[in-house]
Amino acid sequence: MTEKKTSKKSFKNYFLLYFCFFIFSISNVYIKYASSFALFSLYSFFYYFLAIAFIAIYAFLWQKVLKAFDLGYAFFHKAIAIIFGMIWGVLLFGEKIKPNMIIGCLIIFIGIWQVTKSE
Predict the structure, then answer these.
(1) I need a surface site. Which of 54, 61, 72, 116 has the fewest CB within 10 A?
(2) Is residue 92 part of a domain?
(3) What sign does the dihedral 49-55-60-61 (CA atoms) show?
(4) In this structure, is residue 2 part of a structural domain?
(5) Nearest to 20 by CA among 97, 102, 80
(6) DSSP string, 20-85
(7) What is the pLDDT of residue 3?
(8) In this structure, are residues 79 and 73 in contact, taking their beta carbons and an 8 Å threshold?
């Protein structure tokens, strides 16, 4: 029989959870930067290397997160990475936020709040 892991709700654990997804979102930024260069150029290799480095950091942090939270609970919070991606798009790439994007973010926040509230 396996025992159910209880989520250790603390500021430190939630900070680690969201910081983990923040790091993951940075890897996506580097992938987008890499795609703006020729496939086998030095710049594309550099940005892909940075993306892989951030994914490795994310993988290490994810293991720490799983010590504090159940997999399903932690993975549900990964939707916050979409919001980080939208913020990066505005700040770094000059993308515009559309009303449907704001509605989507609200739905994500409500969903995370509902899961967190019921836990």
Answers:
(1) 72
(2) yes
(3) positive
(4) no
(5) 80
(6) HHHHHHHHHHHHHHHTTS-TTSHHHHHHHHHHHHHHHHHHHHHHHHHHHS-HHHHHHGGGHHHHHH
(7) 47
(8) no
| Residue 38 within a domain | yes
Both structure tokens of 61: 């942090």
Asked, for residue 29, whether it belongs to a domain, the answer is yes
Q: pLDDT, tens digit, for every residue of 54-80?
A: 999 999 999 999 999 998 888 888 888
Rounded to 10 deg, the angle between the 11-34 and 80-93 helix axes is 50
CB contact at 8 A, 42 and 104:
no
Distances (CA, A) of 52 to 21, 60, 67, 110: 15, 12, 23, 31
Cβ count within 10 A of residue 117: 7
What distances in angstroms separate CA 32 from CA 70, 81, 114, one per listed residue? 31, 15, 32
Render pLDDT for 28-57 as a digit per residue (tens, 0 to 9).
Answer: 999 999 999 998 999 999 999 999 999 999
pTM for this entry: 0.80
Domain that includes residue 111, residue range: 11-118
